[in-house]
Write a structure and sequence with these properties.
Elements (H helix, E strand, L loop, with lengths): L1 H4 L6 E6 L4 E5 L5 E5 L6 E9 L3 E11 L29 H20 L20 E9 L4 E5 L19 H4 L2 H10 L8 E6 L4 E6 L6 H13 L3 E6 L7 E2 L8 E4 L4 E4 L10 H15 L6 E5 L7 H5 L4 E5 L3 H15 L10 E2 L1
Parallel strand pairs: 3-5, 9-10, 14-15, 15-16
Antiparallel strand pairs: 1-2, 1-4, 2-3, 4-5, 6-7, 6-8, 8-9, 10-11, 12-13
């Protein structure tokens, strides 16, 4: 009470942060206020622009006492202003604090939804804060008023595409391609009918899936091939309709894949297959899961929702047998193919056990 009396009555004290990166405060009458841009333990002022019976929502206008965890965002396109990129929500918060917020949200949900509390919480897995995002769906828009093409994430709470010159969370080579990609799409005959580019990075290949609503001319296809030659390790995939229509523009070349070197595994995949966004985290995740499981050569293990075999194949280097269960027939076929390909790899010390 003494602390509250020491500050002006119109200041709000931020108590916590929700998963939408909104600071959570309370008015003197007890009404909850959600504030974009505010961080826990800050005193702030906010412009309130939405009101309901039990809560209000607003945008940060001034920080009077800043959190020790507040940092300068690493991306020039991040912010609360009009036109800011909405791809990231927490760049103004230290990365370790971001993880702590997410862990707390998980604990709260376990209790509120399941009425359980964990006896032991493992230390969170952390990885690179920048250049980690190996999967992304980038919108493409030809803006007639600007006579220009924009490629990137949507603006905050908007259907418009942010005018992104760079993106530090994407791999550096991909970030450097954003402006050349804009120039490429602007030069196509199909400039107005290519709404999306989906990104899927492997260890050595960058796959770009171009969604096109009309057939591409031979001149456009030649420009795509020229772009791939100018930018190392880029391969184009075309998507005329749904995900099932995705195909490689030109067969051959190095396959899209990622490695799990600790287990001697290489995982080929298609850009439409589910893979983890952060490959560094994935390697640690697989290693930790298998270490905790401690599968023995005499044991049979079931991997539920096995997907491509991200856990199944490493498990097969330790257990006597592994059965992968997956609801998607496409992924079942892909996981079986990955098993066959990895059987051909010389795993001298840890041969793959039989899997189904």
């Amino acid at each position: 009470a003494g602390q509250a009396a020491a500050v002006p009555a119109d200041w709000l004290f931020v108590e916590s942060l929700d998963l939408d990166a909104q600071g959570v405060a309370h008015k003197p009458d007890g009404k909850v206020v959600f504030i974009e841009g505010a961080l826990p333990f800050e005193y702030v002022s906010a412009h309130l622009n939405r009101s309901k019976n039990n809560w209000e929502q607003g945008t940060l206008t001034q920080v009077h006492r800043a959190s020790a965890q507040r940092v300068t965002p690493g991306c020039p396109h991040f912010g609360l202003h009009t036109g800011a990129c909405g791809g990231c929500k927490m760049q103004h918060l230290h990365t370790s604090a971001q993880i702590a917020v997410k862990q707390r949200a998980l604990e709260d949900n376990l209790w509120h939804l399941g009425k359980v509390r964990p006896e032991l919480i493992l230390r969170p897995i952390e990885g690179p804060a920048w250049g980690y995002r190996y999967r992304a769906r980038l919108s493409v828009r030809f803006v007639r008023k600007k006579d220009a093409v924009l490629i990137g994430f949507h603006e905050r709470k908007s259907r418009y595409v942010a005018d992104m010159q760079q993106c530090p969370v994407l791999p550096p080579q991909v970030s450097a391609m954003l402006l050349p990609l804009r120039a490429l799409i602007a030069s196509l005959d199909a400039v107005q009918t290519c709404p999306q580019i989906e990104l899927a990075c492997g260890d050595r290949v960058i796959a770009l899936v171009l969604r096109h609503l009309e057939a591409l001319s031979s001149a456009d296809l030649a420009k795509l091939r020229g772009f791939a030659k100018e930018h190392a390790n880029v391969q184009w995939w075309l998507q005329p309709k749904g995900p099932e229509t995705v195909r490689l523009l030109d067969e051959g070349g190095e396959p899209l894949s990622y490695a799990l070197p600790e287990f001697g595994i290489t995982m080929p995949f298609r850009p439409t297959d589910f893979t983890q966004v952060n490959p560094s985290i994935n390697q640690v995740l697989v290693s930790r899961a298998l270490r905790l499981l401690g599968a023995q050569p005499t044991e049979r293990v079931i991997d539920w929702f096995c997907g491509l075999g991200n856990f199944t194949l490493p498990l097969a280097t330790q257990a006597g047998a592994v059965l992968g269960i997956e609801g998607s027939e496409v992924l079942v076929a892909r996981s079986r193919q990955n098993f066959k390909e990895n059987c051909a790899i010389a795993l001298v010390n840890r041969p793959l056990a039989a899997t189904k």
